User: Which sequence fits this backbone?
């Protein structure tokens, strides 16, 4: 099954994969080859790609996922591979988001602060996965 | 008549101007290529997003009031226009053209228009002519990311949803090719779904349901269009600057050539004069 991950700024990945697990807006959803046509919104989370028995993780910041004719297209608001994430910066962002929630002013919505927090958390987890050795397979076939 | 030294000084000045404009033209050319690549990189996303929108927009709407707010049309009392311009000048007629285009739009509009300016040149223009400026964004830089433009889309979506304005337009310079950049005005809100391609009528499973997906999709369309406009503006700016600085370099070189010619004539004239003096002088003695 073909997987394409596209953001506004670039096409991150185009590859043949064996399956993936995506952070759907109502919970994780797994997609295997020959899935029925599907269109769903994604929330910020980890996108797990399964290829040749190995898992790769990407951090996606929300978006959409379409399955059509054995091709999965992910339209992500942002998407990063583990090796592209600066863990220190992600953690700083997480701290900032937590502070923003703790002492937010009236005009800031809690929702947007929570999304920012969630996004930062995901980036930290994905970055950690690389360190702990559950590391990414080579993604050389991805286009940048 | 200017002295030889005056000529030399002017030639040196023009040569230096030519060097500067030539360097500017080369730099602008490199930046233009980078901006073009950035535009090309947004194309796959834009295409897919429009495709999904035509799918969802084509769904039967039994009740117009059930339509998502960003698709719903309402009587127009106030219009907002996002005016995208460069931060810097020295790019030929580009700024004048886009300012004139937006100005024309405002003058011809039947309802009052507020302006959101992106870029210093557009802000200065709108402020000078006393237009109602709703917001200004400057210093986006030469390689803005989507994040840099999100604040703009947030502002217009909020203004539209809150009822401050009833339509939002986008004015920018479209990059056609290196020689041609065209000012363009497009409608941003309400979103107009492109007609659906008939080959593509698939029954999707929507997760959680079509309306939710559509509601999440619409702001993305606005964000994407604004980001694309900002990139087009940068590519246009750089290519206009490249062309303008190229012709400035040519003009400087022409000046240097004609000044050199004049200088040589002046030098010859003075040599001839001196010779005549000497010959005249020696003739008086041989007599």
Assistant:
């Amino acid at each position: 099954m073909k997987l394409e991950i596209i953001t506004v700024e670039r096409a991150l990945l185009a590859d043949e994969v064996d399956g993936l697990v995506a952070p759907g807006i109502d919970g994780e959803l797994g997609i295997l080859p020959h899935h029925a046509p599907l269109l769903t919104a994604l929330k910020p989370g980890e996108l797990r790609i399964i290829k040749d028995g190995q898992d790769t993780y990407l951090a996606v910041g929300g978006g959409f996922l379409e399955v059509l004719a054995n091709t999965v297209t992910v339209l992500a608001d942002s998407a990063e591979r583990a090796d592209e994430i600066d863990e220190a910066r992600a953690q700083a962002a997480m701290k900032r988001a937590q502070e923003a929630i703790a002492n937010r002013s009236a005009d800031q919505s809690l929702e947007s602060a929570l999304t920012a927090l969630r996004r930062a958390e995901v980036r930290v987890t994905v970055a950690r996965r690389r360190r702990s050795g559950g590391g990414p397979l080579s993604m050389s076939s991805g286009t940048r | 008549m200017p002295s030889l030294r005056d000529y030399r000084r002017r030639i040196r000045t023009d040569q230096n101007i030519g060097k500067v404009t030539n360097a500017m033209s080369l730099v602008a050319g490199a930046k233009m290529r980078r901006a073009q690549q950035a535009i090309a990189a947004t194309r796959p996303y834009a295409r897919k997003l429009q495709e999904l929108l035509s799918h969802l927009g084509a769904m039967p709407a039994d009740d117009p009031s059930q339509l998502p707010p960003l698709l719903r049309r309402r009587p127009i009392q106030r219009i907002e226009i996002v005016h995208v311009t460069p931060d810097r000048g020295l790019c030929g007629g580009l700024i004048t053209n886009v300012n004139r285009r937006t100005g024309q739009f405002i003058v011809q509009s039947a309802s009052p228009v507020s302006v959101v300016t992106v870029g210093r040149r557009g802000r200065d223009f709108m402020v000078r002519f006393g237009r109602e400026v709703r917001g200004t964004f400057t210093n986006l830089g030469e390689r803005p990311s989507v994040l840099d433009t999100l604040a703009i889309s947030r502002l217009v979506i909020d203004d539209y949803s809150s009822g401050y304005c009833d339509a939002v337009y986008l004015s920018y310079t479209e990059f056609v090719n290196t020689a041609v950049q065209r000012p363009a005005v497009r409608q941003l809100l309400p979103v107009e779904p492109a007609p659906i391609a008939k080959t593509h009528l698939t029954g999707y499973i929507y997760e959680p349901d079509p309306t939710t997906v559509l509601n999440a999709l619409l702001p993305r369309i606005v964000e994407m269009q604004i980001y694309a406009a900002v990139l087009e503006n940068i590519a246009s700016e750089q290519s206009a600057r490249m062309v303008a600085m190229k012709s400035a370099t040519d003009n400087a070189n022409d000046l240097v050539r004609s000044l050199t010619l004049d200088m040589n004539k002046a030098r010859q004239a003075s040599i001839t004069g001196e010779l005549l003096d000497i010959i005249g002088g020696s003739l008086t003695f041989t007599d």
